[in-house]
Every structure is written in C-alpha cells, then in structure tokens.
Write a structure and sequence with these properties.
Order of helices and strands: H
Helix content: over 70%
Organism: Streptomyces luteosporeus
Protein name: Hydrophobic protein
Number of domains: 1
Length: 51
C-alpha cells in the first residue's frame, strides 16, 4: 500500500513540475517577443521600455 502511494505522489509531483516548466517556457517566449519588438520599434534612438 505504501509503495503505491509513493508512486502516486511521485506521478503528481512530476505532472505538476511538467506543467510548471511548460508555463515557464511560454513566459520566456513572451518576454523574448516583447524584447524583440522593443528593440525593433525604437524610434529616434530611444526605447519605449526601461530595461
């Protein structure tokens, strides 16, 4: 009974970690797109963001 519970807990943890990693990849992609847009859309040598 205990090994089955441990395996189930491990599956839940790995599923949660996989979901979190996927979300982090989407956040990183969004930040990259914003950075590229800011780099390409700068006007007059100034940037519209303060990074």
């Amino acid at each position: 009974m205990v090994p089955l519970l441990l395996v189930l807990v491990l599956v839940v943890i790995l599923f949660g970690a996989g979901f979190a990693i996927k979300v982090l990849w989407w956040i990183a992609l969004a930040v990259l797109i914003l950075w590229l847009l800011g780099f390409l859309m700068r006007s007059g040598g100034g940037r519209w963001y303060r990074w």
